[in-house]
């Protein structure tokens, strides 16, 4: 089976690598050609100058780009993959997008006999590198089965959520949970710092109980140290939460925690932290917290102080 992969970012680069290492004939395309060249140097495959060239002759085309407009460009644009695919091929979109975009692209693909799967992933860069992603799929069963051998090269779980669009809705559930976990960890750690607690001891204590979360365990110490030069960026989380809010508004679903988180990520972006890890939202809490006053020194006991135990 020939497979094309479009978009070699932090996630797409290792995902495409797993496909190549599994023995599939793999052709990649990336907007920055030097990244595609680096991928070819590391894996068995070749690069193409356009998405259409990468997709020519492919049975499965995987996309992992930035946002809705990027997906439209690489699928429906003048050099998009859809114009190069034959009937029976399948497009798998791993980008986190709106559910409306998924149905839009699927309808265009169906007109030329091409299947479509909206398949956002969870697990981060570490999960992509380890081939242990959770993949949430929206499509028909037979379309998913065509793509499954490819998805199995980097997916620990592959779950069909329902028809096209369901994968993106499930990813919104994921992002609501993740954003809430980050907000909780940021607020709690900021509280611990401001209260003067030993944060190493606090994290050890709370990470072993019901309060634990992935972000508390994997980002707690770096949040304390103000280290954020890694991971899933603030701006990507902000983009995802705006998608969640738009869908919630369309359906009339209350999402107060998501509304709060989106506002905090907007502040983090405005502070210039957009490219830092999403856990950098703790800086928003720190900026709102007054400096902890230095405790006054204990006065020396005066000669007139009552003796202990006198009851004075």
Structural summary, described in words:
With 312 residues, the chain is of the alpha/beta class. The chain has 13 helices and nine strands. It folds into two domains: 2-163, 3-Layer(aba) Sandwich (Rossmann fold), CATH 3.40.50.720; 169-288, Orthogonal Bundle (N-(1-d-carboxylethyl)-l-norvaline Dehydrogenase, domain 2). It has helices spanning 12-21, 33-42, 51-55, 68-76, 99-111, 124-130, 141-151, 166-194, 199-206, 214-224, 234-251, 256-270, 282-288; strands spanning 2-6, 25-29, 46-47, 60-63, 90-93, 115-118, 121-122, 133-138, 155-162. Strands 3-2-1-4-5-6 form a six-stranded parallel beta sheet, sandwiched between helices. α5 (99-111) links the parallel β5 (90-93) and β6. α1 (12-21) runs parallel beside α6, α8 (166-194) packs across α10 (214-224) and α8 (166-194) packs parallel to α13. The chain is elongated and about 65 Å long. The chain starts with a strand and ends in a 24-residue tail after the last helix.
Q: How much is the average pLDDT?
A: 94
- CATH H-tier superfamily of the largest domain: NAD(P)-binding Rossmann-like Domain
Distance between the termini: 90 Å
- The number of domains is 2
Main pleated-sheet profile: 6 strands, parallel
Number of strands: 9
So what's the CATH class of the largest domain?
Alpha Beta
Structural class designation: alpha/beta
Strand content: 5-15%
Radius of gyration: 24 Å
Please list the strands of the largest sheet in the order they lie side by side.
Answer: 3-2-1-4-5-6
The count of helical stretches stands at: 13
Poorly predicted runs: 299-312
The CATH architecture of the largest domain comes to 3-Layer(aba) Sandwich
Query: CATH fold name of the largest domain, please?
Result: Rossmann fold
Please bin the fraction of helical residues. 40-55%
């Amino acid at each position: 089976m020939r497979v094309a992969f479009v978009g070699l970012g932090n996630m797409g680069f290792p995902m495409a690598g797993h496909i190549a290492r599994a023995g599939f004939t793999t052709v990649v395309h990336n907007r920055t050609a030097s990244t595609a060249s680096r991928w070819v140097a590391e894996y068995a495959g070749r690069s193409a100058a356009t998405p259409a060239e990468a997709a020519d002759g492919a049975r499965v085309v995987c996309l992992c780009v930035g946002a809705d407009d990027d997906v439209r460009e690489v699928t429906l644009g003048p050099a998009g993959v859809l114009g190069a695919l034959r009937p029976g091929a399948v497009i798998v979109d791993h980008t986190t997008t709106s559910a409306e975009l998924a149905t839009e692209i699927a309808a265009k693909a169906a007109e030329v006999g091409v299947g479509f799967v909206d398949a956002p992933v969870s697990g981060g860069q570490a999960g992509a590198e380890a081939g242990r992603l959770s993949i949430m799929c929206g499509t028909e069963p037979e379309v998913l089965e065509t793509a499954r051998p490819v998805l199995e090269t980097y997916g620990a779980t592959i779950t069909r959520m329902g028809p096209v669009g369901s994968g993106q809705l499930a990813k919104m559930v994921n992002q609501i949970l993740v954003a809430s976990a980050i907000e909780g960890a940021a607020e709690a750690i900021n509280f611990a710092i401001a209260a003067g607690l030993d944060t190493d001891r606090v994290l050890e204590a709370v990470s072993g109980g019901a309060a634990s979360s992935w972000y508390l365990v994997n980002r707690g110490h770096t949040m304390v140290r103000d280290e954020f030069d890694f991971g899933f960026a603030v701006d990507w989380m902000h983009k995802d939460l705006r998608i969640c809010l738009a869908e919630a508004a369309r359906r009339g679903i209350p999402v107060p925690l998501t509304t709060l988180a989106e506002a905090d990520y907007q502040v983090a972006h405005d502070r210039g932290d957009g490219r830092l890890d999403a856990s950098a939202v703790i800086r928003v809490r720190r900026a709102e917290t007054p400096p902890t006053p230095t405790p006054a020194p204990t006065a020396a006991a005066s000669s007139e102080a009552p003796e202990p135990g006198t009851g004075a």
